[in-house]
Design goal:
The complex is a heterodimer. Chain A is α+β, with helices and mostly antiparallel strands. Chain A has 13 helices and 21 strands. Chain B folds into 2 domains: about 220 residues, P-loop containing nucleotide triphosphate hydrolases (Rossmann fold); about 60 residues, Alpha-Beta Plaits (2-Layer Sandwich), CATH 3.30.70.100. Classes of the chains: A alpha+beta, B alpha/beta. Chain B: Pfam families: ABC_tran (PF00005).
Chain lengths: ~525, ~300
Amino acid sequence: MNPVLYDFKRGILRLSVVVAITLFILAGAGLAYMTIQTMVGTKVPYIELVAMSTLDIETGVLDLEGIVFDISTMKELGGVFEYRFTVINISGFKVGAQPVVVWSTRDSVRFSGKLNISKNLGSLIKYNSSEYLYSLQYNITTYLGLKSGEIHYERSNVNRSIYCSTSGGYSFDILGSVETSGAGIFGKASLRFIKFSNSTIKVVIALCTPSAKDSFELYVGEVKTARSQQAFYITTKPPSLDELKNYTLVGTVTNGVNILDVPQNFSKVTQIAFVLIQPSKTLYVQGVVPVMQIIGATPYVVFSLLGQADVFTRFFPILMLYLAYVYIAKPRSQGALEFVLARPVTRLELYLTRLFAGILVVVVASALFYLVAIATIATIMGIVFESYTYIMMYLGIAVSLMAFYSLCYALSAALKGGRYLAVSIFVYIFFTVIIQIIISIVAIFVVKPGPNFVENITKLSYQMAYFSPLGFNEFSKYFTMKYYETKYGVGFTPPGVEDIANPVLVGVSAIAWIVIPALLGWLVFRKANLSS
Amino acid sequence: MVIEIVGVSKSFGRVKALSNVSFTVRNGEVVGYVGLNGAGKTTTIRIAVGVLPPDSGNVFIDGYSVVKEKKNASRLVGWVPELPIFESDFRALDYFTYLAGYYGYSASDARRIGKELLEKLGLGDALKKKLSEYSQGMRKRFALAVSLIGDPPNFVFDEVLNGLDPQGIAFFRNLAIEFRKQNKAVLFSSHILSEVEGIADRVVFIHKGRIVGDYSMEYIRQQAQPAIELALTTVDGKVLKLLEKHGEPVVVSEKRVLLRKPISDSSQIVVELVTAGVGVLEVKKHEKHLEDFFFELIRKAEGG
């Protein structure tokens, strides 16, 4: 067996290393759960509710149907939905409320339910009343965050007095109603056009129609000239035939909440015209909506993950310290390396074999750490990061650990057993704790407090990162945040750091931190007496 | 099939361990390498097998320099150290497999060879035992098994008989003789000349890092002198002065003196020692004492 692979296998299969690798994996899972936990409790604008609710004042029955989804991917989410029907008088005082209803689902499915309005409240709901306002207050808790809101009912002008409401948020409500013979009254519609990727557009449309059997055909087309967003209207007049030539039939829309894919490339389109046509061709809904480039939860999950990862990555160098002890320092202090060196192998090969074996462990352990974290997040939250994020996060931890391993390896080549452990532990504490203290002292006595104090300390921290084997991880986090800031305009990178975080210098520094200690270690090892 | 040590010098800090050491071990020859503890035997051997770089000089194994062509040289020489040290938290067969990897064997071949060799050397029941659980004798057998990978034509045994039971001693002595029959070159170090008596064709003597003699065993036997070996309760200047009247005393260890070229009878010497208040624990009379030859060399090397 190739000695590098054998050393790798041996390194991996040591009980202590297996325990450490298991810790990496558990840390990955822990990281994912900490990230999810952070997201669940955060009120953020990247989940959306589209709900359609009707209230029949004659029967007192409230129907509710809706979906919760990540607005960037349109992926439906599961979670806990709490809602409460409230009646408020025109002065703004709450005059009655149903008890809170909790409805939850583990999978990403639609929720729907009925709520029988109590007699007390029912008495307040009167036909054609203008004394009271009705609303549904809700709280949705998902893995992607928390959403709270309120949807207000507006009365439809039908003989059963149906009150209709759709959610607010990014949707575009089509207000108004048209009475048509035989078709009843069209109450209300909510439309969303979301740019999902460069070539796909999803439509979410909620319709409130007098009968559950009512349906419409949805056509969409490009807008040639800019038109006002307010151009929503319900009409009995059909659109011109010329206009309809450029439209594409997307599908059928029924009463309630609908999601449709628009199979057309609208990558360069900023506005889309739509027409809803009732099969009886007696009612039309027409309008123009903008294509929205909406940032979903992904950047926030990435930021959260990067922040939480610190808890774990600070402890990983201890494994590197131990690995160098296992590979060189311990066998060297025992005198066991001599017996290996008596084989057909040069000192340089022996040195490099164990160096690379340790680096292979770093490569695998770091990969496992983030793979577990990312897989857990993908499974639970449905968030799949962009490849740039994967690469930067992985490189951040892997390169830093390689650099620290290289440093420990050099120390293990120069120092035996106990001395190695003492010095390497000091080095670990130095680069994780003492360096921060030095920065604070320098900040107080050199930078001096002032208007740009925080900015200057941050800059100093990044400057110092060049002088730490673990510094690459800081820069990788910075570059990841910068990527999202540039691409989506979310998050913020510390001011003044752009000039310091030079990608070329960061790369050179990382390579130097890996190569130079290993090289210095070799200069000691090549002549070292390996006897105990 | 030859081990050539050419002008090797080595210092550890200020201590000169070896000074211009040169000698050769030829095919089908067992060469004893004899010196007191700390004389430089192990240092010479560590340099010869390529685990310690010399300050100057070189060692050639079948013409390959251990300094410049180490891999080729190491492939051609087996080494059993006095106290073999392994990464001992591994199981024997696994560690054998790992080391065999350096000889280019695949894992399956290495395991097969490992099983064969370890079973042949009496370690068949301990293949899966951790090396830390091995006794000293087992460790030496394991080291020998590893050294036999590739059947090298040259062997170096460093104080290999130390700490072994009679069965172990016989095993390694017979092995050296067997290797000679196979036309291998064998270097066999010891701090006791009589230990290599039955096996060595030639003996190279080292003292304080210098080669002080290189003689055939036959010549050494011829030169051996009678001697009286005494185990005493005290060995000090007064005792040595008393013994000088009866021959040439050499301190062998803390309480053991070898009286070379005795001119008095042993009973007379014992009487005088007891009269002087020195307890005599043991008296051994050697008609021809090999060590005497060795001590004579040392005495001459020190200008005596």
